[in-house]
Automatic annotation (TrEMBL):
It catalyses: tRNA(Thr) + L-threonine + ATP = L-threonyl-tRNA(Thr) + AMP + diphosphate + H(+). It is found in: Cytoplasm. CDD domains: TGS_ThrRS, ThrRS_anticodon, ThrRS_core. It comes from Oikopleura dioica (Tunicate). Its EC number is 6.1.1.3. This is threonine--tRNA ligase. Keywords: Aminoacyl-tRNA synthetase, ATP-binding, Cytoplasm, Ligase, Nucleotide-binding, Protein biosynthesis. Belongs to the class-II aminoacyl-tRNA synthetase family.
Length: 800
């Protein structure tokens, strides 16, 4: 075993070395590896080297597990006398050879810590129930959204009672309530006069509650099946997950997941009630003394008095709310397992994660499963590999390698936006990639964003790679005193940005470390805000219409913590509302208010698009910013007086990487003609037509299209046509002897639509027209004949 000093010295040495695939292992490495094998490392570079050595020396290639840290030793004084268990030593992991139930696979005996935790909860919950029973029971009025009033009793009537008084059918479908604007458990007793809204699974907060409760059920199943230490268990956009530390054990999709799902159904069948308990921080520390990860959360997040919830044998700290009981979850699918790291950091403990989803009925689950199958086919990571658009490599994790065909898409998106900049008065700029930390301190990002930036030293100063463009644009605006005649001044920038995303959070093109945005910042006077917002909305619509996307508009207003004066916020929000009203009345659409969700420096408009699978994605945003111009002391002169401009942050595509991922999945890899990296394939019937086919491809290529000839005549004609269709060439031009003589070609599409035999020059002009017009359905808009092609007949004859 190595001493602490040896570990520190080796970690320091390793921090200066790269660890790439193919790292050459020396004898010194092997000796060091044997010496340190089994040591619980707390050093990031040493841990990385250790994993590489395990792989290179052919050892266990499973993700290395670290021994969890010892739990924080709590002061074990509780209000309940039996909580003084000062010398309890829990085993988190089950013993080898533990006996299990034959059907569900759960351990026949729960981990030791479960009994301790349940005993403490039951005693505290009993005391809480006595306190509630002693509360005064007074008549209360409960006001429903339609204005109707129900009578109730304080500390006795629950939201579920109100639902039952309306109808038993309603009581069966509601999942939680909103009491005076706060989401509540259906079984939590009302404390006085209140307004109440009953929420179903279809409501946003209802779905969140439903899936958060489902995560707790999953946590109970994982404890019963694996033992281990539960970590995070949130609801997410598509269900829920739970992370667990399990030592060196990993979860098998084939052996464990089906049994875990059976156990889940058993927990639903038992209709275990969710019970809410208020606890002090001291009680919380003692209740989770067995779990070092929960102890960390308590310490790191500075949790004070809070609540815990119990369902079955599981007790977890949680603000709630939750379902009345586990039986409210009717249909379940545990659909994925993966490895992750504590807090997403690669130098922390390795955890096992299980994903799941639940629904109020089996029909919805079946629809979801079918939807997932379609989404899987459209996964941008799969399509990107199949179509050779991009690749990723550990040598630069989180940074995309754009292959030639992928670069076509990337550049065309930039060119699309760039072409509109000239029409809409934007001036494109180029800014540095690295800045002194003083810039970020001035902007305020350093104080809140330093951990998310790639930082390094230059001589004696700390520098960082830029994660956003706005401070650099402020520097450019402030390079000299501006006149009001220059406003609005619109800077656009495709600069490369870097954000230090955690390795565990990286995912294809949707979460990367290196990316580019169609970023723009508009500096304007206050009276110009409304006009600029209206113009920005028009720009958004033009771009999204080109992609065939529908979109939703949300206005996010002043949050609880904000900078500036209320009057300025009210004025700005009023301008945004006017711009939205003008835009929506012209375009026959609506916008929704998202109160309190604005940025701390100004209100914003969020635009969410709907893709082909009706999934919502936020690409665009418009944000008003009063703070950065003040921080950078930006000024313009009007009537011999200096004024501070307002800054508008604007992005349409947002991250181009993420936009490409969304477009890939929405189109399913069937790129619209103008964006396609494979626009035209020219297929000769025989070898004698290859030069003619190549000349047509050259004409198309010279006209700016992505065109290729297929010179491989070894395969059958039908096979080559099918191959071109599967490779998603939008148009397939076929040439035989007759076409060669007449200077024509037979035009067909990837979907087997035929446009007849046409002169090559006409075809080139027509395809160029469709490309320049960015036709969304160019294959259908092509102006040609619709009849069987002579080339097709000739091909059949030749094959015979």
């Amino acid at each position: 075993m190595a001493s602490a000093q040896e570990l520190n010295e080796l970690n320091e040495k390793l921090s200066k070395l790269p660890f790439l695939n193919g790292y050459e292992v020396s004898q010194a490495d092997k000796d060091a590896f044997k010496k340190f094998d089994g040591t619980p490392f707390q050093h990031a570079h040493l841990m990385r080297w250790y994993k590489q050595m395990k792989f290179e020396m052919g050892g266990d290639q499973k993700q290395e597990q670290k021994t969890p840290p010892a739990p924080v030793k709590p002061a074990l004084e509780c209000t309940s006398g039996s909580c003084h268990s000062k010398d309890v030593n829990f085993d988190i992991l089950p013993a080898k050879g533990v006996q299990r139930d034959a059907k569900t696979g759960q351990m026949k005996e729960d981990p030791v810590y479960v009994a301790y935790r349940l005993k403490m909860f039951d005693e505290l919950f009993s005391a809480q129930e006595e306190r509630i029973a002693a509360m005064p029971k007074n008549p209360i009025k409960v006001t429903l959204p339609d204005g109707a009033v129900k009578e109730g009793t304080s500390w006795e009537t629950t939201p579920l009672d109100i639902a039952k008084s309306i109808s038993s059918g309603l009581a069966n479908v509601v999942v939680c309530a909103k009491v005076n604007g706060q989401v509540w458990d259906l079984t939590r007793k009302l404390e006085g006069d209140c307004s109440i809204e009953l929420l179903k699974f279809s409501d946003k907060e209802g779905k969140e509650t439903y899936w958060h409760s489902s995560a707790h059920i999953l946590g109970e199943c994982m404890e019963r099946y694996f033992g281990g230490a539960l970590c995070y268990g949130p609801d997410i956009e598509d269900g829920f997950y739970y992370d667990m530390w399990m030592g060196n054990t990993t979860i098998s999709s084939e052996a464990d997941m089906p049994k875990l799902e059976k156990l889940y159904y058993q927990m639903m069948k038992e209709k275990q009630p969710f019970q809410r308990l208020n606890v002090t921080k001291q009680q919380l520390i003692d209740m989770f003394k067995h779990n070092p990860f929960k102890q960390r959360l308590i310490a790191e997040k500075n949790i004070g008095d809070t609540t815990v919830y119990k369902c079955g044998n599981l007790i977890d700290m949680c603000r709630g709310p939750h379902l009345p009981h586990t039986g409210k979850a009717k249909a379940c699918k545990l659909y994925k397992t993966s490895a992750t790291y504590w807090e997403g950091k690669a130098d922390q403990e390795s955890l096992q994660r299980v994903y799941g989803i639940t629904f109020p009925d089996k029909k919805q689950l079946t629809e979801w499963v079918n939807f997932q199958e379609e989404a899987k086919k459209r996964d941008h990571r799969r399509i990107g590999t199949q179509q050779e658009l991009w690749t990723f490599d550990p040598v630069s994790a989180g940074s995309c390698f754009w292959l030639p065909r992928g670069a076509v898409i990337y550049n065309r998106l930039q060119d699309f936006i760039r072409s509109e900049y000239r029409k809409r008065g934007f001036k494109e700029v180029v800014t540095p990639n690295i800045f002194n930390s003083e810039l970020w301190k001035t902007s305020g990002h350093w104080q809140h964003y330093e951990d998310d930036m790639f930082t390094f030293k230059v001589e004696d100063d700390k520098w960082a790679m830029k994660p956003m463009n706005c401070p650099g644009h402020c520097v450019m605006f402030g390079s000299r005193l501006r006149s009001y005649k220059e406003l609005p001044l619109r800077f656009a920038d495709f600069g490369v940005l870097h954000r230090n995303e955690l390795s565990g959070a990286l995912s294809g093109l949707t979460r990367v470390r290196r990316f580019q945005q169609d970023d723009a910042h508009i500096f304007c006077a206050r009276e110009q805000i409304e006009g600029e917002i209206t113009a920005a909305l028009d720009f958004f619509k033009f771009v999204y219409d080109t992609f065939g996307f529908t979109f939703e508009l949300n206005l996010s207003t002043r949050p609880e913590k904000y900078l500036g004066e209320v009057a300025d916020w009210d004025e700005a929000e009023g301008m945004l509302k006017n711009a939205l009203n003008t835009f929506c009345s012209t375009n026959e659409t609506k916008w929704e208010l998202n109160p309190g969700d604005g940025a701390f420096y100004g209100p914003k408009i969020d635009i969410k698009i709907l893709d082909a699978l009706k999934r919502r994605h936020q690409l665009a945003t418009i944000q008003l910013d009063f703070q950065l111009p003040q921080r950078f002391k930006l000024k313009f002169v009007r009537d011999n007086k200096e004024e501070t401009p307002v800054m508008i942050h604007r992005a349409i595509l947002g991250s181009i990487e993420r936009c490409v991922a969304i477009l890939t999945e929405s189109f399913g890899g069937k790129w619209p003609f103008w964006l396609s990296p494979r626009q035209v394939r020219v297929v000769p019937i025989g070898k004698s037509q290859v030069p003619f086919a190549q000349s047509i491809a050259n004409k198309l290529f010279d006209a700016g299209l992505e065109a290729e000839a297929d010179p491989d005549c070894a395969d059958t004609f039908n096979y080559r046509i099918r191959r071109a269709q599967l490779e998603q060439w939008n148009f397939i031009l076929v040439v035989g002897d007759k076409e060669l003589e007449a200077g024509t070609c037979a035009v067909r599409t990837r979907d087997a639509q035929q446009h007849g035999v046409l002169h090559v020059d006409f075809v080139v002009d027509e395809l160029v027209r469709l490309h320049k017009n960015r036709a969304l359905k160019a294959e259908h808009e092509f102006r040609g004949e619709k009849k069987e092609k002579p080339a097709a007949k000739e091909a059949k004859a030749e094959e015979k």
